[in-house]
Amino acid sequence: MALKLVIGNKNYSSWSMRPWLALRANHIAFDEVFIPLYTGEADKQRLLSFTHSGKAPALIDGDVTIWDSLSIIEYLAERFPEKGLWPEDRASRAHARSISAEMHSGFMALRYECGMNLRRPVGAIPLSADARANIARIEQIWVECRARYGKRGPFLFGTFGAADAMFAPVVHRFRTYAIEVARQAQNYMDTMMALPAFAEWTQAGVAETLIIEKFEDD
Ligand SMILES: N[C@@H](CCC(=O)N[C@@H](CS)C(=O)NCC(=O)O)C(=O)O
User: Fold this and answer.
1) Nearby residues of 65 by Cβ (< 8 Å), 6 or more positions away
2) In this structure, which of 50, 82, 186, 208 has its CB flanked by the most CB atoms within 10 Å?
3) Ligand 1 test: best mutation among 13, 15, 34, 72, most atoms within 8 Å of CB?
């Protein structure tokens, strides 16, 4: 039975983007179930029929349901070990898990002030000191990875993997809010934007017409 990934709006749902990219960029076949977010009770009930969390994303693999973007990526790494979602050596793997968990549980100011909205016209806004500190830390994470693992390939740990999937939505936040970063970080963003799976998600998100008012800042 094919894997099923339940996702929200591609334009806005940064959480959905992560496992979707992990699947698509690694050429793992899956069926996509799109449920528009924040439209009312009917769609909420549809979400709840897939996962009691009532949130996207969720992955359905036969009688196994996995929810939460990072848990799904962990599951995919176990289910498809040949795809090398985490780095092979233990030290790099620990590093990749640390930055993925840091992304998953932090950077609240950046998330709050610079919501993912692919259709948003590019332009800077005034940011709080906390958001600027978040940006500096992400830049540091990327630059350190590129310096340490650059010889393996252009992504954080060489080839596209779990950590890249976790940070992918940030690339859109930095792009749409015209956030300037160091050259190495910009190179990493360019690499990500050139990834066919990233471009595919982006094109589909931009083409969506649904608007979630609370995620529009203009
Ligand atoms: N920590 C969760 C967050 C999931 C989440 O908050 N999803 C939002 C969409 S971006 C959602 O489904 N909201 C719909 C709702 O609450 O009705 C993850 O990483 O998957």
Assistant:
1) 50, 51, 58, 59
2) 50
3) 15
Asked whether the beta carbons of 179 and 173 are under 8 A apart, the reply is: yes
Amino acid at 5: L
For residue 150, how far is its CA from the centre of ligand 1 (angstroms)? 33
**Count of beta carbons in the 10 Å neighbourhood of residue 97:** 17
57 in ligand 1 pocket by Cβ < 6 Å?
Answer: yes
- Token readout for 72 is 């799904």
Six token digits for residue 33: 């179930």
Count of Cβ atoms closer than 10 Å to residue 179 Cβ: 21
What lies within 8 Å, CB to CB, of 209 at 6+ separation is: none
- pLDDT tens, position by position, 78-130: 999 999 999 999 999 999 999 999 999 999 999 999 999 999 999 999 999 99
Rounded Cα distance between 110 and 33, Å, is: 28
Q: Ligand 1 atom closest to Cα of 67? A: 20
Closest atom, ligand 1, to C-alpha of 72: 20
Report the C-alpha gap between 42 and 125 in whole angstroms: 35
Verdict on whether the full-model pTM lies above 0.85: yes
Residue 15 Cα to ligand 1 middle (Å): 6
The answer to whether the CB of 3 is under 6 A from ligand 1 is: no
**Cβ(61)–Cβ(75) below 8 Å:** yes
